[in-house]
Design goal:
This protein is mostly helical. The chain is built from 15 helices and no strands. It has one domain. It is globular, with a radius of gyration of 21 Å.
């Protein structure tokens, strides 16, 4: 579905426009990494551990604290982009103000969606977690197709399709979220703040990793633009789209959801880790080999 979405986008935008589109996405992703991913892994690991140890009161308290923290961290970049959107008009014209402001709503929607996914992962809703990205891409594909065939598909419409599809997915998950939260309704949350203590103990070491791991990849389009051109950034964006499509096929999040739940059960934890790593490596080799043949062929055909 991501490939089909990319077809409409690549067919509708010039190389320069696609380069601008990639620059805006890169800027959004950089801010999103900085504000959204802070302590996400730390909170997720401790939540899984608490549930695995049947400490539901502690899990509820940590979830509510982290949900509030995550929403605040979504409002900050939204406000920054909304207030500073006019700065983009000097380089990319007056339309860039609207592009930036439409894209800014993804900070709020993503914050709410990330909290929702955290709860669904906690309840091991693997079927729903597997379906959501595909359904979102299908909705986005329908919207892009409508603009492509019956209207005009530009950067504004592409960002609007991304925002609307994400918002619809958030509403569609509401019944499952209510069911996932149901076990906590009769449980009183543990007293006292938990997240600050977790951050002070070992969470602080996750901060440099969450901020710097993908920083190089996020700013690369801007470096390409600075030293080469916006069009070169567009070429890079096309190549990176193929890489992302292959990477998204790998089930990288399964172990992070399962291992913390069994940290108190060493034999089963070791079983999950050893066999999970083995089959993940095998799947990676198979996908990489297939991609090495299929991607050049796709580029040649197009």
């Amino acid at each position: 579905m991501g490939a089909l979405d990319s077809f409409f986008i690549l067919k509708s935008l010039s190389l320069y426009q696609f380069g601008v589109y990639q620059l805006f996405l890169s800027g959004y992703a950089t801010l999103s990494d900085f504000f959204h991913d802070v302590f996400a892994e730390v909170a997720g690991n401790d939540l899984q551990r608490f549930v695995g140890e049947d400490k539901e009161a502690a899990a509820k308290k940590l979830f509510l604290e982290y949900a509030a923290f995550r929403m605040i961290m979504g409002v900050i970049p939204w406000a920054i982009v909304m207030a500073g959107a006019s700065l983009f008009s000097d380089r990319y014209g007056p339309d860039a103000i609207l592009w930036a402001r439409i894209l800014s709503f993804l900070f709020l929607i993503d914050a709410a969606m990330n909290v929702s996914l955290l709860l669904l992962k906690l309840r091991l809703e693997f079927r729903l977690l597997a379906l959501l990205p595909t359904v979102e891409k299908i909705i986005q594909f329908i919207l892009l197709g409508y603009f492509f065939f019956f209207s005009h598909l530009g950067i504004r419409e592409i960002f609007a399709a991304q925002v609307v599809s994400s918002l619809l997915i958030l509403f569609l998950t509401a019944p499952w979220l209510a069911r996932a939260f149901r076990p906590w309704r009769i449980i009183a949350a543990r007293r006292g703040m938990m997240l600050p203590a977790i951050v002070r103990s070992y969470g602080k070491w996750a901060l440099p990793r969450s901020l710097l791991t993908d920083f190089n990849g996020r700013v690369r389009p801007w470096i390409i633009k600075l030293f080469l051109s916006t069009e070169a950034g567009g070429v890079f964006g096309v190549a990176y789209t193929f890489i992302s499509l292959v990477k998204d096929l790998l089930p990288t999040r399964t172990l992070t959801m399962l291992v913390p739940r069994k940290v108190h059960d060493k034999p089963y934890k070791d079983f999950l880790f050893v066999y999970g790593t083995k089959y993940y490596l095998l799947l990676s080799i198979i996908l990489s080999t297939c991609a090495a043949v299929a991607v050049p062929a796709a580029v040649f055909v197009t």
